[in-house]
Design goal:
Distance between the termini: 55 Å
Structural class: alpha/beta
């Protein structure tokens, strides 16, 4: 019995240590002051992740969350899915396209085409902050993260980077530790089996990769926010929380009251 108790105590301590994050990054205080439009301020005929959506976010005084992929020619495109089927009606992967080809694909039946990351940076120009999600595919996590950092090095505005892939956050920790980095996660334990093994989904759901990449914030899905690991990371280790995606005023108010940085969609808070 005594041995079992010791083993349980050791496991509990290891679990607690695994959830740690980096505290008090000076830029987090500034990032906390903003509300963030998910994929820009889209809807009512304005496509997500479009220049029009980002322009509206700036004009309404919101920060914005956006997604970037690595193109075949090494440039970066702003789009959520790797496949263009949902957003542009084309059965092709964004990673197979070049910068020149982006103008051939129109978003959600509008005249808006897939923007490059540089186009978005030029448009926003530091007026409001950015939450940049890194979307690696086919093992390109290091190349994608490095390219994003290189492009952001001359950017005058406030930003942070996040990813579901802990390898991206680890790269930032090792190579650009001065940047604000965040681990994206949600409860994926009950998702249908796919390319992500259960053990990895268990680790990511419970934030057990934090020990490896020590994020400044944890961006967690709103409806899953009360999981034990999330509560420990936020309360014990004081890791900043970012809540996504808030789709009503009630959810927004709850998230803000609970001290989450809000990412909203479908309404103006």
């Amino acid at each position: 019995m005594f041995t079992a108790c010791i083993i349980l105590l050791i496991l509990a301590v290891l679990y607690l240590l695994a959830l740690r994050g980096r505290r008090r990054h000076v830029l987090l205080r500034k990032l906390r002051k903003w509300k963030y439009a998910h994929r820009g301020l889209h809807g009512n005929g304005v496509p997500e992740n479009s220049l029009a959506a980002f322009r509206l976010a700036v004009e309404n005084g919101y920060g914005m969350e956006l997604d970037i992929h690595l193109l075949a020619d090494g440039n970066l495109a702003v789009i959520h899915d790797a496949s263009l089927q949902r957003t542009a009606g084309a059965d092709i992967c964004i990673e197979d396209l070049t910068t020149e080809q982006l103008s051939q694909y129109f978003l959600e039946g509008t005249d808006q085409t897939i923007p490059t990351f540089q186009q978005v940076l030029d448009l926003v120009d530091g007026k409001t902050p950015l939450i940049v999600e890194l979307k690696p595919e086919n093992g390109n996590h290091a190349e994608l993260t490095e390219k994003a950092c290189n492009m952001l090095s001359a950017y005058p505005g406030l930003y942070c980077l996040e990813s579901f892939d802990p390898r991206c956050i680890r790269w930032l920790k090792n190579n650009r530790p001065e940047l604000v980095r965040g681990q994206l996660a949600h409860n994926s334990l009950h998702e249908a089996p796919g390319k992500v093994p259960y053990i990895l989904r268990f680790v990511m759901t419970n934030l057990l990769s934090n020990f490896w990449n020590v994020p400044d914030f944890v961006a967690y899905r709103y409806c899953d926010r009360n999981r034990l690991s999330v509560r420990i990371a936020r309360k014990f280790w004081k890791v900043q929380g970012v809540s996504w995606t808030l789709r009503s005023k009630e959810e927004f108010d709850t998230a803000v009251r609970e001290d989450w940085i809000p990412i909203f969609e479908g309404f103006k808070p």
